[in-house]
Every structure is written in structure tokens, then in C-alpha cells.
Specification:
Strand content: under 5%
Largest sheet: none
Number of helices: 9
Number of strands: 0
Structural class: mainly alpha
Helix content: over 70%
Radius of gyration: 19 Å
Length: 254
């Protein structure tokens, strides 16, 4: 693996004791679990005060995304100074990284659409589950949509790229070859999206997105990853604000 592409050990050694492998690999996993538990706690508390399911879900989802970013930043602070810089250091110029990130985000959304289409042709039951997911994921109130948009386009790209690529992937690379680390980090990233567990084409697509993001991070850097992730999620936000949910009465599943 070229250290020019993915510098892990190229900087001078830190002045203080380095954190160990358990923190580097298990820490990001625990961050995701803690954020999920926090979102469940917030949902439960809001329901205890008779808040509607839609409102409680919107706030809980926003809290979970914010928690991943917040916990990720706290974990990053525990790393040596040179590694903190390397996590977000540019590989390409910022304009180039942003431009490529936009293109990759659009391409990734198209690729997942192809995977879902193939999945529906193989498994007809996917059609009905997809319709239910599409309609259940569109919140009814404007403030619900605004919270979801901020979570999807700002918090999730920053937090998830920091945790899964900046922390988890880099921790794995210290223990194994990069291609293996990329696959492991991508699969864990995919399975962290619980809403896709019952839709295997989406789960496969999200895992593939995670693997691709690992290679983008290695070659182009953090800014390209965040941009790709934000554009990928932003396309979904456009459909949410446009109320483009699937009309179950107009679609026939075979």
C-alpha cells in the first residue's frame, strides 16, 4: 500500500503514549452503538410525554446523527496530533475533491437504483417492502423534513465519514491489508443502517457504497468522501421535500 495515498505512519511519532488497537477498532463500533441507544432513549422519553411517533422519530433520528458526529470528534481528540491531521488531510485540491465527490455521489445513487432493480427481478417480494419503506420514510410535517434534511446532508456525512473512514478504516489498516480493511469497514457501515436489514438489495448497495467510500477516502481524502455522501443523501432529500413517495394504489407488485 502506498503511504502517499493513505499515510498512516508517515508523520513523526506522537509525543505521548499512543492509543491501542482496541480503541482504534472497537471505539468506532461502540460510538455507533452508543448513538443508536441514545436515539432510542430520546424516542422513549418523547413518547412518555405523549409526543407523536412521527415527531419522536424525527427528533430521535436527528439526535442519533448528531451523536455519531459528536462522539466521533471526541474520539478523534484522543489520537496523537499528527493522526488527527491525517484523518482530514487533503489528498487532492479542495475544488477537485468537491467536484469528483459530487459526481461520485450521483453515480452511487444510480448504482444503488440498478442493484434494487435487479433485486426486484430476482425477489418479487422486495417490491412491496420497498413501497412501504418509501412511504414510511417521508415525514408529514415541514419541521420533520428540515430535521431529516440536516441529519442526512450535514450530520450523517460528516459523522459517518469521520467514524467509519477516518477512525474505523484507519484502525483496520494498521492491522491488515487495505482491500480487506475496505471490505470489512464497508460491510459494517452497511449493517449499521438498520432500516435496510429487511431489504437485501438496499443492504447490498449500502455495503458496496461503504467499500467504495473506503477507496475514495484513500485516494482523494476526507472532503471528497463527505461531498459524495452528502450528494448521495441529498438526492433522497429532494424526493422527500418534493413528496415523491410511491403511490401504493398506482403500483402493482407481482
Amino acid at each position: 500500500m502506498s503511504t502517499a495515498q493513505f499515510p498512516v505512519e508517515s508523520a513523526p511519532p506522537p509525543a505521548h503514549t499512543d492509543v491501542g488497537p482496541p480503541f482504534r477498532i472497537l471505539g468506532p463500533v461502540l460510538i455507533v452503538l452508543a448513538s443508536f441507544m441514545l436515539s432510542l432513549l430520546v424516542f422513549g422519553l418523547l413518547k412518555a410525554f405523549s409526543v407523536s411517533d412521527d415527531s419522536a422519530g424525527a427528533v430521535a433520528s436527528f439526535t442519533g446523527s448528531a451523536a455519531i458526529l459528536g462522539f466521533g470528534l471526541l474520539a478523534r481528540r484522543r489520537l496523537p496530533a499528527h493522526e488527527r491531521r491525517l484523518i482530514t488531510s487533503p489528498r487532492w485540491s479542495l475544488p477537485a475533491a468537491l467536484g469528483v465527490g459530487v459526481g461520485l455521489g450521483i453515480a452511487a445513487r444510480i448504482a444503488i437504483g440498478v442493484v434494487v432493480s435487479v433485486g426486484q427481478s430476482v425477489d418479487p417480494g422486495i417490491c412491496r417492502k420497498l413501497i412501504e419503506l418509501e412511504n414510511d420514510s417521508v415525514p408529514p410535517a415541514l419541521w420533520h423534513k428540515l430535521l431529516l434534511a440536516i441529519a442526512l446532508v450535514v450530520l450523517a456525512p460528516l459523522g459517518e465519514e469521520l467514524v467509519f473512514r477516518g477512525l474505523f478504516l484507519r484502525g483496520l489498516v494498521r492491522r491488515m491489508r487495505f482491500p480487506i480493511a475496505a471490505v470489512i469497514s464497508g460491510v459494517v457501515f452497511g449493517f449499521a443502517h438498520l432500516e435496510y436489514w429487511t431489504l437485501w438489495p438496499l443492504l447490498v448497495g449500502i455495503c458496496g457504497f461503504g467499500v467504495a467510500a473506503a477507496f475514495v477516502y484513500r485516494t482523494m481524502g476526507f472532503a471528497a468522501n463527505v461531498t459524495m455522501h452528502a450528494v448521495f443523501n441529498g438526492i433522497a432529500v429532494v424526493f422527500i421535500f418534493g413528496d415523491f413517495g410511491i403511490d401504493q394504489g398506482s403500483v402493482t407488485c407481482t
